[in-house]
Amino acid sequence: MNKNEDEALLQEAESIAIQHMKEKYDLDVVVTSEKKLPSIAVAEISLKGHVVDHEEQRFNLYVNYERKEVTSMGMSEEFKKLLIDKGYDPFKK
Fold first, then answer.
1. Gyration radius from the chain CA atoms
2. d(CA 51, CA 49)
3. 59 touches 79 (CB < 8 A)
4. Whose CA is closest to 58, among 46, 70, 48?
5. In angstroms, rounded to a whole number, what is the distance separating the alpha carbons of residues 90 and 50?
6. Model-wide pTM > 0.85
7. Which of 26, 51, 56, 64 has CA 20 to 30 A from 70's CA?
8. Residue ranges of the chain with pLDDT lower than 70?
9. What percent of the chain is helix, strand and coil (3-state, nearest 5)?
10. Residues linked to residue 60 through DSSP beta bridges, in sequence order
11. Rounded to whole angstroms, how far apart are CA atoms 18 and 43?
12. Residue 54 buriedness (CB in 10 A; 0-12 / 13-18 / 19+)
C-alpha cells in the first residue's frame, strides 16, 4: 500500500471508531492518534481517544479495515465508570 492508501484507511478507521462509540454508547469522542499495525500480521488499525471535553475518559480500540468493524477495546477506569453509570456493560461485546 502506498501512503495515500494508508491515509485513506486511517481516516476510514477513525470514522468507524467515532460512529461505533456514538451508536453503541451514545458518546461523542475525539480520536487523538491512530496507527496502522503491520499488515503482515493483522489488518487492523489501533486508535486512541477520549470522550469530548473529558480527556480522563480515555479509550483505545482496534478497527479491522478489511471487515470495517471494531474488534476490541480497552479503556481507562474513568471511561469504564462512565459506561457503567450509563447502564452499559463495558465488557460485553
1. 13
2. 7
3. yes
4. 48
5. 15
6. yes
7. 56
8. 1, 93
9. 35, 35, 30
10. 48, 74
11. 19
12. middle
